[in-house]
């Protein structure tokens, strides 16, 4: 995100750190929501997301799609760096991946062991419910099926990681005696992290930090003076926006040297928002003052120099003779010819004839083409060189210079690959390296490989045994409690069911034998106007202190139609029951409507 902002605007914004941190938090939170949603759907639990969560996930997905589109469009070659980095980080990725798999095995083992316990418990229950065996058998099959997609992929990935070193190739895994010398360093436009690029301060800083040579870009002014400039306009590295703003985007080749020499080429470098590299170290006050007084230089450096000569634009007077003009200026400056690495392919035969001491540098072409043109040095982009291999160039004894190498891991990769020289912006850091990073011998790596595999296996077995034992103890506890419950139920006497005193079932003991035969078939005719309550309902019998009074017949309700055999039996049944009175009834009378 920070680099996209810089590429689009040309400015570094300090709040980009805040945006980057916020983007990381939102991405992590959204990823967690997606993971939880996937797990809930896996368990067939309906997913409910708050509206804010839905909006958040959509925004994060949209932001990721936009950024990926920008990166893929403007940084196509950057994807090669990811594959290239595996050549040096693969051994460490292997060790880290095994560690992550051991950590992930904890929930996997827990889930598999729990599913196994669930299967066994369901089988145990099936012995008590044979009628539902068929239905529960399908559930058990499903539980068994869940163990396969959870455990099998994990085991396959783990096995592939254990065998991963067999397919790993890293140039930094070699014997110490086979390690080549440290690559020589060319300062890319000088030392652009220590001073304004393509200025005398930048070149001097590069020389101070042990640069073997310099790489620079040459333009020709309108009055035939070669000067050092990389961009095709003056806006970024000069103060032309203050002096002549309307000409800020014009090609510098259309200006005379008298005007170009008056421009300041260092004030922009000390402005925090315009610094060219985000990880630059802060400048001292002396360096800041020195940078503010820099101007555009001409050719006069006495070091190895790689010249990247830019052809003047159309309508320039030296459009077709720019090579000859630059060569004549170099020869007139008394620079030793063997210090010049000549990169332009235009008019190469003329250069060979007038300056036979120049060292001609080629591009990434076949070995046959290089031999045909009598070129023994190539200057290539590292992103294009490493995927194509180095064997052919090494076999032909070709001197290889790669650009632009700024990261220590990339410099270590070039060192282990026996690259002859590199061009870098970060000369202050790379010049301090005295040994390649991530270097190890084959025996040491094999030892680390076997040690990591053995330790991981021990941890995985321990984790699995822990979860399996815990789930087995839960299963045994469940079986023990189920057995005790069954024995308790078998030994317990039958429980007498006490019916409610105001139901007909409570009156069964008082019914004659003939009445029980017709229980549940009484047909009472409902009254025509109003339902009459049953008063003085039967209460539970309890011995009293005094003797029981004689029974008093009572009429509970009136029939509204001719009595039938059932009605007559009901009336007889109701009138034959006594109304028992005790001193202290245990339950008050309750009015119950007719059924």
From TrEMBL:
Principal location class: membrane
Q: Which GO terms describe its biological process?
A: lipid metabolic process
Naming one, the record's GO cellular component terms include:
membrane
Keywords assigned:
Glycoprotein, Hydrolase, Membrane, Transmembrane, Transmembrane helix
Q: How does the protein's chain sit in the membrane according to the entry?
A: Multi-pass membrane protein
Q: Name one Pfam family in it.
A: GDPD
Under SUPFAM superfamilies, the record lists: PLC-like phosphodiesterases (SSF51695)
What the entry lists under InterPro entries is as follows: GP_PDE_dom (IPR030395), PLC-like_Pdiesterase_TIM-brl (IPR017946)
Where would I find the GP-PDE domain in this sequence? 183-434
Q: Does the keyword tRNA-binding apply?
A: no
From the record, give the transmembrane residue ranges.
12-42, 54-76, 88-113, 150-169, 444-466
> What GO molecular functions are on record for this protein?
glycerophosphodiester phosphodiesterase activity
Q: Which domain of life is it from?
A: Eukaryota
Q: Where in the cell is it found?
A: Membrane
The UniProt entry's sequence similarity note says: Belongs to the glycerophosphoryl diester phosphodiesterase family.
**Name of the protein this chain belongs to:** Glycerophosphodiester phosphodiesterase domain containing 4
């Amino acid at each position: 995100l920070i680099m996209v902002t810089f590429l689009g605007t040309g400015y570094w914004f300090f709040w980009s750190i805040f945006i980057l941190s916020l983007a990381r938090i939102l991405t992590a939170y959204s990823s967690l929501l997606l993971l939880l949603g996937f797990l809930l759907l896996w368990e067939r639990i309906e997913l409910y997301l708050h509206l804010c969560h839905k909006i958040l996930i959509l925004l994060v997905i949209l932001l990721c799609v936009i950024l990926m589109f920008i990166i893929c469009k403007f940084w196509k070659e950057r994807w090669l760096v990811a594959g290239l980095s595996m050549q040096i980080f693969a051994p460490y990725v292997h060790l880290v991946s095994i560690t992550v798999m051991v950590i992930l095995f904890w929930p996997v083992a827990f889930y598999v062991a729990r599913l196994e316990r669930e299967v066994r418990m369901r089988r145990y229950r099936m012995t008590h419910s044979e009628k539902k065996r068929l239905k529960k058998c399908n559930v058990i099959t499903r539980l068994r099926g869940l163990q396969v997609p959870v455990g099998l992929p994990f085991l396959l990935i783990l096995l592939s990681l254990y065998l991963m070193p067999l397919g790993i190739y890293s140039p930094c895994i070699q014997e110490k005696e086979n390690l080549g010398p440290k690559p020589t360093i060319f300062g890319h436009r000088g030392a652009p992290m220590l001073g304004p690029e393509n200025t005398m301060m930048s070149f001097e800083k590069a020389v101070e930090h042990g640069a073997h040579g310099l790489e620079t870009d040459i333009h020709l002014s309108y009055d035939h003076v070669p000067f050092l400039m990389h961009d095709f306009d003056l806006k970024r590295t000069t103060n032309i926006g203050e002096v002549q703003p309307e000409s800020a985007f014009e090609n510098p080749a259309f200006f005379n040297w008298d005007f170009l020499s008056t421009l300041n080429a260092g004030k922009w470098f000390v402005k925090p928002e315009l610094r060219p590299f985000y990880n630059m170290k802060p400048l001292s006050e002396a360096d800041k003052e020195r940078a503010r007084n820099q101007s555009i230089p001409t050719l006069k450096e006495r070091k190895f120099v790689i010249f990247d000569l830019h052809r003047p634009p159309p309508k320039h007077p030296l459009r077709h003779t720019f090579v000859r003009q630059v060569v004549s200026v170099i020869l007139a400056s008394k620079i030793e010819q063997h210090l010049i690495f000549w990169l332009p392919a235009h008019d190469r035969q003329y250069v060979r004839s007038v300056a036979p001491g120049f060292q001609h540098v080629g591009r990434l072409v076949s070995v046959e083409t290089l031999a045909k043109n009598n070129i023994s040095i190539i200057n290539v982009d590292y992103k294009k060189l490493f995927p194509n291999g180095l064997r052919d160039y090494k076999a032909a004894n070709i001197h290889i210079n790669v650009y632009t190498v700024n990261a220590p891991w990339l410099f270590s990769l070039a060192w282990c690959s026996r690259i002859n020289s590199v061009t870098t912006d970060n000369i202050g850091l790379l010049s301090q390296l005295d040994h390649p990073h991530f270097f190890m011998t084959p025996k040491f790596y094999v030892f680390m490989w076997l040690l990591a595999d053995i330790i991981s296996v021990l941890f995985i077995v321990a984790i699995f045994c822990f979860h399996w034992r815990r789930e087995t103890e839960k299963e045994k506890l469940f079986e023990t409690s189920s057995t005790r419950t069954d024995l308790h139920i078998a030994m317990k006497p039958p429980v007498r069911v006490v019916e409610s005193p105001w139901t007909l079932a409570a009156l069964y003991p008082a019914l004659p034998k003939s009445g029980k035969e017709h229980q549940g078939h009484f047909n009472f005719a409902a009254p025509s106007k109003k339902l009459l309550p049953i008063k003085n309902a039967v209460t539970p019998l309890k011995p009293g202190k005094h003797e029981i009074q004689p029974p008093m017949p009572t009429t509970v309700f009136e029939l509204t139609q001719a009595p039938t055999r059932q009605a007559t039996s009901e009336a007889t049944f109701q009138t034959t029951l006594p109304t028992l009175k005790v001193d202290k009834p245990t339950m008050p009378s309750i009015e119950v409507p007719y059924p």
